[in-house]
Amino acid sequence: MACSYCARPASSDLPYLFVWPGPGHVLGKLRQAISSGRLAADPLPGGRGLRLSRPAAGWTQVADRLQELLTPLELQETRVLTGERATPDADGHERVMQADRFCGEIRGHWLSELLDQERLTTWFQPIVDRDRLPFGHEALARGLSHDGGVIAPQAMLEAAATPQLLARFDRLARLTAAGAADRAGLPGHLFVNFVPSTIYDPEQCLRSTVAAMTRLDLDPEAVVFEVVESYRIDDMEHLKRIFDRYRAHGFGVALDDFGAGYATLEALVHLRPDFVKIDKEMARRCRDDGFCRRLVGEIVRLAHEEGIKVIAEGIEDRAGFDLLREVGADLFQGYLFGRPAPLPAARPACATAARARRAIAGDCLSAGSRGAALTPMSGA
């Protein structure tokens, strides 16, 4: 039986929504909104709940209104249920969810549909060594719109407004990356991004991911799992357990965006990754900032003492490459060596995807993010 984090999302086409507010004052707020015309709803028998009919514009309109009327805490304490009859189903308790989850899933319905239809693809950006020889590639998720347009990963991450939806996106992105790399027969190392908060139990949740990589005949020593750059490291011990689990199966681990955001010296000391990626903005500042250059040089020295390889990101010209190579970086990634791009498949995608899907289908994941609208992307 799947855990709640892997459960199917709220249906966006059922005709009724039943709402049971948490604290008493929340019901009062909703009744006031009904009397003022801001919300259309009828009381349920007993007076403790409300029934809303699906508007012509869809449930997104209701989700927007609920988020306007209630605070985040009030949304968490309010329960909702979608149904096809005018009274709640007797067995519908298994589908009851928090109102904030309902709002997030409805607002991210386009992403849920995209994941259902597996309209996710992988682009690859090369990583080279100090002699500009190929070392590997980073796998980068891209969505596909109905008309074939490309959807930026940030738009999908922002639309993954619930732990459940982010978990589904993260899982399918990893699956798609593995399948694409296998089809293309990429040489060298494969860097695969992951969101640590989607992995609530490393031993259980990574079991089928490892099985997928094994069944696709990908060499574990050539696969590196990389923390997504936007991830906030709130629980260092949890992330260390994830790293340890990956390493136990022979995979490498990498810390991205080092020197900016949430990737700090504390993370480097505590996690001891196999690779650390210097933040692209920090790499650029090395050109004109002597202190920054010395700081990066010290990071490189400390990393090398622990056997950690340093990757410099955002290298766009020869001068930047020469400077970071002089500072001591081992590997390099950036437009100078290649922009993210799709690769042609070496064999039919359906067979590889099906094998990987069977291997990874049991992942149990959870996560969190904020919602946003669909945004097409034409660039890298």
UniProtKB/TrEMBL annotation:
InterPro entries: Cyclic-di-GMP_PDE-like, EAL_dom, EAL_sf
Domain EAL: 104-354
Residues annotated as signal peptide: none
PANTHER family recorded: BLUE LIGHT- AND TEMPERATURE-REGULATED ANTIREPRESSOR BLUF, CYCLIC DI-GMP PHOSPHODIESTERASE PDEF
Protein name: EAL domain-containing protein
Species whose genome carries this gene: Marinibaculum pumilum
